[in-house]
Amino acid sequence: EAQVTQNPRYLITVTGKKLTVTCSQNMNHEYMSWYRQDPGLGLRQIYYSMNVEVTDKGDVPEGYKVSRKEKRNFPLILESPSPNQTSLYFCASSQPGGLATSSYNEQFFGPGTRLTVL
Amino acid sequence: GQNIDQPTEMTATEGAIVQINCTYQTSGFNGLFWYQQHAGEAPTFLSYNVLDGLEEKGRFSSFLSRSKGYSYLLLKELQMKDSASYLCAVRGPNQAGTALIFGKGTTLSVSS
């Protein structure tokens, strides 16, 4: 089954304790992205990756790191979590959309990780 | 700048028709997506428009007017399970034409 998986699904942690949220996709997608979703703010992009070893900042990258050593995996790392990083996190993947394309190439989302930082 | 506007909330009754509007001002346009998201779950793809006009998929239709920067999602024969948030997202030229800019979503409540 084509899917994006994330682990853990739920996590409660304390300020300053490093954590990693894993993301894996089995669709051989080149593009992967991390979002956070907060009430009233919608989905905001944290980091994205166009391919292996190619990552870049999205709109809200502060306090986060990512890596893309393999095509299928795109972990999100919080080196020193703070309470303002309490949020619902989604990983997504797709093939590149291309310019002026008529193809779907929609983004497929993982099930989400609800993170609480105390 | 990038801006996508949708109503925050809408209510409707079972069996009715509802139209959720989306207006956008973005630097570049490579298509518009509608996603459905049930509370606490992942967004799931509903529809995609890149050319002007109406796309129909069963009970769901989506319309696009690029000159007006406007789209709508039409849901017919509403069911209770349609209670969810509906996200409008524009694909821009950034990130090799892959980046999505999301609106804040419209929460639809369907009552019996």
Short description:
The complex is a heterodimer of chains A (118) and B (112). Chain A is mostly beta strands.
Rounded Rg of chain B: 14 Å
Shape of chain B: globular
Percentage of β-strand residues of chain B? over 45%
Low-confidence stretches of chain B: none
Q: What would you report as the Rg of chain A, rounded to the nearest angstrom?
A: 14 Å
Q: Low-confidence stretches of chain A at least 5 residues in length (pLDDT < 50)?
A: none
Oligomer: heterodimer
Q: What's the β-strand tally of chain A?
A: 11
Helix content of chain B: under 10%
Strand content of chain A: over 45%
For the biggest sheet of chain B, the summary is:
6 strands, mixed
Distance between the termini of chain B: 41 Å
H/E element string of chain A?
EEEEEEEEEEE
Largest sheet of chain A: 7 strands, mixed
Rounded mean pLDDT of chain A is 93
Head-to-tail CA distance between termini of chain A: 36 Å
Structural classification of chain A: mainly beta
Please work out how many helical segments of chain A DSSP would assign. Answer: 0
Q: Largest chain-chain contact?
A: A-B, 30 and 26 residues
Provide an overview of this structure.
The complex is a heterodimer of chains A (118) and B (112). Chain A is an all-beta fold. Chain A contains no helices and 11 strands. Chain A has strands at 4-7, 10-13, 19-25, 31-38, 42-51, 54-57, 65-66, 76-78, 87-94, 108-109, 113-117. In chain A, strands 2, 4, 5, 6, 9, 10 and 11 form a 7-stranded mixed sheet that branches. Chain B has 1 helix and 11 strands. In chain B, the strands form 2 sheets. In chain B, strands 2, 4, 5, 9, 10 and 11 form a 6-stranded mixed sheet that branches. Chain B has a 5-stranded antiparallel sheet with strand order 1-3-8-7-6, with no helix packed on it. The longest helix of chain B is centred in the last third of the chain and has 4 residues, at 94-97. The model of chain B has no long low-confidence stretch (mean pLDDT 94). The chains are: A mainly beta (118), B mainly beta (112). Chain A binds chain B through residues 31, 40-45, 48, 50, 56, 88, 90, 94, 96-102, 104-112, 114, and chain B through 30-31, 33, 40-45, 48, 50-51, 87, 89, 91, 93, 95-100, 102-105.
